[in-house]
Design brief:
Shape: globular
CATH topology: Ferritin
Strand content: under 5%
Helix content: 55-70%
Radius of gyration: 18 Å
Number of helices: 9
CATH architecture: Up-down Bundle
Distance between the termini: 16 Å
CATH superfamily: Ferritin, core subunit, four-helix bundle
Order of helices and strands: HHHHHHHHHEE
Number of domains: 1
Largest sheet: 2 strands, antiparallel
């Protein structure tokens, strides 16, 4: 995780006891805004497809998921106001309140295909959940309390995602379309966890703010998601990850 703004004048009051480590503090602010923005834009993109799903039942379930994603974002944004940092990123209500966004590029624009919805549900959503699980024992009380309820709510999201993957993969055309969207999203999702030994994540782990490092989160994601894709005849081949195009600050493809 990186500092949300590289030139900010940091002010760390003595009474703010989460950390006295500047690098960990900057990484913590980045962690909060990255999680919140990704949840916000995931919910936003899902909500745009409420009338585009394959059935009324699917649309009703997707609406519930979208609302929960937006709710997770709304729970996180107030933490930015607590941070001992001048000019921390402001909360998003409509998505246009600030120019810089901290979401994956796959979430930054509306999707063209239902397969994009399914790919995001099986790739992006589980990636976010893994990071929330890494916060369940965080010594930052306010963040830990907000993170604690997310994994239980994500159980339904995952069941829904697994079902939609199976639905699309039943036909050759559906499976091929989904494969193209997975090929597009997967490299960025794997990079979202950050490169091995990333200093900000290392500082967060040292300070007891998160449980897992970059490689542990990425491995957990692969162990969780890849078997579902394989069972449905989908490939996870991504080749060498394009780290030169990676923005550590926004945690997205540049």
């Amino acid at each position: 995780m990186s500092s949300p703004e590289p030139d900010l004048d940091r002010v760390v009051p003595a009474e703010w006891s989460v950390t006295d480590d500047d690098e960990a503090l900057a990484a913590l602010v980045n962690l909060v805004v990255v999680l919140a923005d990704n949840k916000f834009f995931l919910g936003r993109r899902l909500s745009e497809w409420l009338s585009g799903g394959p059935s009324l039942e699917s649309a009703v379930a997707l609406a519930a998921i979208a609302q929960e994603e937006l709710g997770h974002a709304r729970a996180l944004y107030p933490l930015l106001e607590e941070m001992p940092l001048v000019d921390a990123p402001i909360s998003l209500q409509r998505g246009a309140e600030r120019e810089r966004k901290y979401c994956m590029s796959a979430l930054s624009e509306p999707w063209e295909w239902w397969a994009d919805v399914v790919a995001a549900l099986i790739l992006v959503d589980p990636a976010l959940t893994i990071l929330f699980r890494s916060l369940e024992n965080s010594r930052y009380d306010d963040l830990r309390q907000r993170a604690a309820r997310v994994p239980s709510e994500e159980v339904f999201h995952r069941k829904y995602a697994d079902g939609r993957v199976r639905d699309l993969a039943r036909t050759d055309q559906g499976r091929q379309t989904l494969q193209r969207r997975i090929d597009w999203m997967l490299p960025e999702v794997l990079m979202w966890f950050g490169p091995s030994g990333e200093p900000g994540v290392a500082a967060l782990k040292t300070q007891g703010l998160i449980k897992f490092d970059n490689d542990e989160m990425r491995k957990t994601f692969e162990t969780d998601v890849f078997p579902v894709l394989k069972e449905n005849g989908l490939s996870m081949e991504v080749g060498e990850l394009p780290w030169k195009r990676w923005s550590h600050l926004q945690r997205r493809m540049a």
